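seq:
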Amino acid sequence: MLRHVSETTAAVWVETDAPCAVTVTAGDLTARADTFTVHGHHYALCEVEGLRPGQALEYGVLLDDAPVWPEPDSPHPPSVLRALDHEAPQRLLFGSCRTPTDHSPTAVMRYGVDMLRAHALRLAADRRDADTGAAPAEPTALLLIGDQVYADEIQSPMRAYLAERRARTPDGGVRPPDDEVVFFDEYAELYRQAWSDPDIRWLLSTVPTLMLFDDHDIRDDWNTSGTWRREIERNRWWRPRVTSGLGSYWVYQHLGNLSPGARAGDPVWRALTAGGGDGGAVLDDFAWRAHSEPDSYVWSHRHDFGRSRVLMVDTRCGRDVADDRARSMLGGPGSRWLDASMTGDVDHLVLASTLPFLLPSGIHYLEAWNEAVCAGAWGERMRGLGEKLRQEMDLEHWPAFGRSFSAVSETVREVAAGGRGAPPASVLFLGGDVHFSYLARAAPRGRGAAASGTVIAQLVCSPVCNWLPPTMRRMMWVAARAVTGLLCRTMARLAGVRAPALRWSLDKGPWYDNALATLTLDGRAASVRWEHSPVVPAALRTVPGLSTRPRVRELATRRLTP
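struct:
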């Protein structure tokens, strides 16, 4: 997989089936690294140095000097390393929530078209057709912002793997659920199945990718509340589950997010690559500490694209949920990191969190009301009912962490008003998770609001491949209506919830189809385009067993800045 890329470097992440030396060759540039081992699995990260800004080079991978990539007779164009060009327009492709499928008509009818595969097929075709060997407007980077894998909603091949593995491997008295991933070996297979589709594998090898986890990477509603944590910890399988989930996330997703400097300073990287056998115990100790002491590690990461700043914000592991009256979405270190990173003197400030910051009004006030009730606003007797509703209805997004929502909103006001440097052209929130997509436009509320012209907007793209069943779509449609927003706002005010520092409304959407979005940043200009692949059920049913090749169509386009 092609991961972190700068103006002069490109990181290639590799998993191998045995310890070896990994070499990446690109033109006359070479990078070499020995594998490190975790629970019997072998990985390497090769940093290609010496690239020129905007330079594109085909590359290959060798294991112990034997060529293994590109694969012989591959139908895909060569994989390419492309260094960042900060002077060029930046095209950031983003989305969340992808269930791997076999792309058959049955799978498409249940989950929709896999938009990651659809984009891979289109990019491959564009590269074949381009005289230079590269499409002129392909993504600068791919931002996968949550639920890259579903550890608690597995597909048939993964169920078969779990049954076979657990039949021959003692579980040590853990008694794991039959249909959920628990151990590191199982997570490794979950990632293999999610990313080994040939088209997906090629896409990840040739487009720089940055990632964030959400709940299903670990478990549905992960860290919803203190009560949730106490209840889940009663299960014997929870400690190996969260340890394996966070450890595998660090290896498969987080490691590749790190710049060379950040990687060199990461204690986990230093420990695993110091040599000396299997690092499974090291990774397990780190992962358990990251769970039990969330302040011990900051998972968020920052990236600069031209004069724009992208902040990939952890909204899951760093949470402080011990006290319902003092909840924090980001925890102490995460809050300080985000506050220090939110400054002006950039063209665009982009905050990507797996959870939308600005939800439709009805959902926002429902979650804010619920947090207040759980904290005792309507008396002690109502707190238990509030917690039950919180868990059953997944009321655990940004507005369910009122102090954090208010703090970030005030910081956005300050940035837009020029209080932290020259105001950016836009402050943009990217989000996923909710399984519908939309654009919401926002502005500071009340007198003294910023007059700098900074655009504030929420861009949501979800799901990539896991669309909502019809009943859930109808429920979300009702939740997004204005009358629902008015009712929930009244409830929230009766529970003592104050009006937020920002006001916003939906400008486009919601859409419930699978989609990927492209955010284009070109100087002070910003625009966004959502794309989907319409499904024609009758056509799918007429060709049993056919794996269709989807076509990508525009869903909506909006210019964000004047």
